[in-house]
Amino acid sequence: MADKFDVIVIGAGPGGYVAAIRAAQMGLKTACVEKWVNKEGKTVHGGTCLNVGCIPSKALLETSHKFVEARDHYAEIGIDVGEPTPNIAKMQEFKEGVIAKNVGGISALFKANGVTALEGTGKVVSDKQVEVTGQDGETATYDAENIVIASGSVPVDIPPTPLTEGLIVDSSGALEFDEVPKRLGVIGAGVIGLELGSVWNRLGSDVTVLEAMDAFLPMVDKDIAKEGQKLFKKQGMDIKMGARVTGSEIKDKEVVVKYSDANGEQEQTFDKLIVCVGRRPYTEGILSDDVGIKLDERGFVFVDDQCRTSVPGVYAIGDVVRGPMLAHKASEEGVMVADIIAGHKAEMNYDTIPSVIYTSPEVAWVGMNEQDAKEAGIEVKTGSFPFSANGRALANNASEGMAKVIADAETDRILGLHIISQHAGELIAQGVIAMEFGSSAEDLALTCYAHPSTSEAVHEAALAVDGHAIHMANRKKRK
Q1: Dist. CA 319–CA 342, nearest whole Å
Q2: Residue 273, annotated ligand binder?
Q3: CATH class of 168-277
Q4: How far apart are the C-alpha atoms of 465 and 440, rounded to whole Å?
């Protein structure tokens, strides 16, 4: 007789491992299936995010940022360190150490909470059974009252640039370079492309980003996107918009890329090429044909607002379902689903999921941007404030960027907050919390902020919604 669990989670990424821990905390007998194997052949938890995504990329972003600070900016604030040189091997060693600590932490949390870790590839073979195939090919079947599919996503490949080991790589391969490429091409000016391009640009690569779309970061408020494009160009990244890649060829260990733009057919040669054109849900092979769970044409699992699939007792969360492919979105869905399975009422607010691009400066946003609000027929009023007028930002020698608050013109309710600045990913939480509580711009304007702090820029942007910012020229007078 097969082992039986109250909950079996397929996938131990940010959605899956959180769902498993939460379910165990609710007193449910829980197992989590994971197939990820590290370089030593050991099964590890954390999925893409912890192993080849969010965490390792941030380690390299931070080390490369510190290198640029030492090389270009320490002397400006009175620290003479000579000419620093990047030690790529040591940076990679640091990155691997960060990964090890994170994935080890999840394994410890599983043990502490009583989650059974199942090693292998999980497959739903009926609405109440999961088949697990180990590395040795042996299979075992487990019964479950509830199943949570949290299998994540994988990078999208495109026919013009088939992956070629060491030369044409995806986002995972871009984290493994053992030396700085002299000429680096990046296909895609989205979150991943800009972050990875930033890493190697800082360390000395001549980076060219090829983006098929004509608009830069269209999901970001136009004023923030414009500022970002200007700053990234200033840092040395050549971002070519409207550049549609049509083919590639390997010649003498170099990559020749062909693309078309407004000027016709173009060609450029790189030492390495990173393909960052998006991700797709990983649903191949995890569902038996007779299970009855419905997928759309792109492979996403159909779910309702509370992540229920078309089969009772089976849920799907994270990158395999609708919504942004973000680790924190997956985690919150995992908590919601575990709570529902445990008999509690639970839901999540998809309108207040923040997004962050961890470039320097960082770009962060939550809610609507100005152009989307206008397209939706909402009359808005906005307030912006530059970090060049913020005392703490000036003291930090990081005064680039701005904060922008978007509010409903009639009700004053905050519709969105967009920031480009140092630590924007931390500052954006103010907007998330404010929007969760249905705050108005006036609520933020009447809040007492610590001084000096970079968060005061958000305060001033809220004040500026009605023309009342203190530290910039106002267009309106208080009545």
Answers
A1: 23
A2: no
A3: alpha beta
A4: 10
Radius of gyration for the chain, computed over Cα atoms and rounded to the nearest angstrom: 24
**Beta-carbon count within 10 A of 478 CB:** 7
What's the pLDDT score for residue 474?
A: 63
Fold of 352-464: Enolase-like; domain 1 (3.30.390)
Q: What is the chain's length?
A: 479
Nearest to 464 by CA among 455, 453, 476, 450: 476
How confident is the model over 132-156, as a mean pLDDT?
Answer: 96
Strand 272-275 and strand 168-169: the pairing is: parallel
| Cα 159 from Cα 170, distance rounded (Å) | 13
Q: What is the pLDDT of residue 153?
A: 98
Residues 348-363 have a mean pLDDT of 98
3-state secondary structure at position 461: helix
Q: Answer yes or no: is 104 a known binding residue.
A: no
**pTM passes above 0.85:** yes
User: Structure tokens of 439?
Assistant: 């705050």
Is 195 annotated as contributing to ligand binding? yes
Q: What is the pLDDT of residue 126?
A: 87
Of 451, 459, 468, 471, which is the active-site residue? 451
- Check if the beta carbon of residue 235 is closer than 8 Å to that of residue 195: no
- Is 184 flagged in the annotation as binding? no
- The answer to whether the 4-155+280-348 and 168-277 domains have the same CATH topology is yes
Q: Cα 193 vs. chain centroid, distance in angstroms?
A: 11
Pick the CATH number of 4-155+280-348 from 1.10.3470.10, 3.50.50.60, 3.40.50.150, 3.40.1380.20: 3.50.50.60
Residues 6+ apart with CB under 8 A from 70: 81, 84
pLDDT of residue 477: 52
Is residue 468 annotated as a catalytic residue, yes or no? no
Residue ranges per structural domain of the chain: 4-155+280-348, 168-277, 352-464
120 has binding-site annotation: no
